[in-house]
Amino acid sequence: MDQQKTKKEKKMKKSVVAVWLMLLGAGGLYAAGTAAGTQVTNEVTLSYTVGGISQTDIVEDDDNGFLVDNKNDVLVTTDDTVSVKVTPGSTAQVLTFTVKNEGNNVQDFILSVSDAGAAFSLSDNFNATSQSIFVEDGTTAGYQSGEDTETYIDELAADAEVKVYVVSAIPLSQADGDVSIITLTAQVAEGGTASSQGAATVNDTGADVEDTVQIVWADSAGETDSATDGKHSDASAYEVQSASLTAAKGSCVIWDPVNTTTNPKRIPGAVVRYTIQVANASGAQDATDVNVTDSLNANLTYGVGSSGLTQTARIVTESCDCASPGTSNGDSISESSGTVTATFDTITAGTTECAYFDVTID
Q1: N or C: which end of the chain has fewer CB within 10 A?
Q2: Residue 262 in contact with residue 270, Cβ under 8 Å?
């Protein structure tokens, strides 16, 4: 009977210990693991019987146990699922990243950018300028120039993440289809002092010391960095979208004072029709407020002179056909002091327009 009681008591004791351990685990663990600096102690209990009689348990402590080391682990990922489309000459163009502290301690993170890496299967051929880094302050989602002003990540808790923005300008000289790839790198730094950027951490490669919190770099390889180097990186890209205009000038003679309209030649008094073809055939964006000026040669006079013809001065939305100009699209063409100005309000991406005007050979 006493033996059965003893076995039952042991079973109950084990159950209580198991529940206690589960509760301890639930309160002390999270996705990144046990917090750095946590003191872990263990107690060994030896229970036994002599002559069928339970003896006093022997309890053995492991003194102070050990301290959990500081696992440094950071993950950088771009939020941009495709390249960010930009216009030549534009400023404050934003690439968005997420930086996550996957370690087990509060850390600062040093941020930097480089013109390197690969993104979206694009080929880099220029560098965006005025590159700056700003950290989301949480007031308003998305980059806000008046709010997001911090340039490093301060006191980021384990398992927490924050948005980081790379803000750049695009040179006016860039053409449609140009690409600038930029990589953001986050390097683990010492935390613990708010509003002050900590120094970069140093990996402890020495022997294990149980009562010292040692730093262990545990990061994976990033876009431009290696595994376990205390940093991580990812890349995004600006892709220029612009109009891609080409212009071509042509002419045909439509009347002369000898042959009139039958095989006319370019003799004095003849009327010549000029064409200016402007194409946005390969552009990704519309071109607006396009102005073309043509300073007439001193031997030419704007208009049809004494030919009796009706002056042709129009812009049409089609390729040029000197012999048969199309219908005006409403855009303007005018002449002043020997300079002809054709104003194309909008040349839509993938289209071609033509300006026509007549002159007389003096």
Answers
A1: N
A2: no
| Radius of gyration of the chain, Cα coordinates, nearest whole angstrom | 38
Every domain of the chain with CATH number 2.60.40.10 lies at 71-240
Across 40-51, average pLDDT: 85
Phi, psi at residue 87, to the nearest 5°? -115, 140
The rounded distance, in Å, linking the Cα atoms of 355 and 339 is 14
Strands (E), 73-122: 74-78, 84-86, 93-101, 107-114
What stretch of H or E contains 16? helix 2-28
**Whole-number Å distance between alpha carbons of 201 and 21:** 33
How does strand 231-240 pair with strand 153-156? unpaired
Q: Assign domain 71-240 one CATH number from 2.60.40.10, 3.30.1330.10, 3.30.70.260, 3.40.30.10.
A: 2.60.40.10
**CA nearest 109: which of 98, 117, 118?**
98
Cβ-based neighbours of 155, under 8 Å, separated by 6 or more? 106, 107, 108, 191, 192, 194
Per the CB < 8 A criterion, the answer to whether 252 and 272 are in contact is: yes
pLDDT over 70 (residue 158): yes
d(CA 29, CA 361): 91
Q: How many helices (H) and strands (E) does the chain have?
A: 1, 25
What amino acid occupies position 233? S
pLDDT of 265 above 60: yes
pLDDT band at 288 (very low <50, low <70, confident <90, very high): very high
- Is pLDDT of 355 > 80? yes
> Is 333 in contact with 342 (CB distance < 8 Å)?
yes
The pTM (predicted TM-score) of the whole model is 0.77
Name the CATH topology of 246-361: Immunoglobulin-like (2.60.40)
Average pLDDT over residues 278-286: 91
Q: Which amino acid is it at 166?
A: V
Q: Which residues contact 15 (CB under 8 A, 6 or more apart)?
A: none
Residue 3 three-state SS: helix
Q: What is the pLDDT of residues 161-212, one digit of tens each?
A: 999 999 999 999 999 999 999 999 999 999 999 999 999 999 999 999 988 9
